[in-house]
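Re: beginner question about structure tokens

> Can someone show what the tokenized structure looks like for a real chain? I only ever see the sequence side.

Sure, here's an example I had lying around. Input first:
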Amino acid sequence: MFDVDKVRRIIAKRNATDNEWDDRIEQCWKNLTDALAEDVPGTIRFLLHDCTDNELSAISEVMEPLIWETQSAPLIKAYRTAIALHPEENKHFLLDRNLDSDIDMLNDMAEAQRLVMWRPTAEEVERLRHTA
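And the corresponding structure tokens:
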């Protein structure tokens, strides 16, 4: 079961960690990756319905290992859709561009190429905005 409080505690700890403390940041990244990979359907729901700008940016830091660990196309699509739901965060941190690079972690290269090109429809994004 997805533990949103655990994920938010890990993100808060990461945000409170000085970027010079590599070992503590790496531990936060590992903990966040593990928590998100534990329940992919729950992570997808979180990304699409509950994730804040700040949380999306924190998750962006672990997308590469998360993709490697889960090999989940639906998770990648949900993250790409979440980026569309948070356009200002995307402009600031280039989340979409970084995801294109992270998708290389998929073992299925044909699927990776499809996912690099895939974007949610405007209608889907609007529907999610009104259900959040």
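Each token stands for a local structural state, so reading them left to right follows the chain. DSSP finds ten helices and no strands in the chain.
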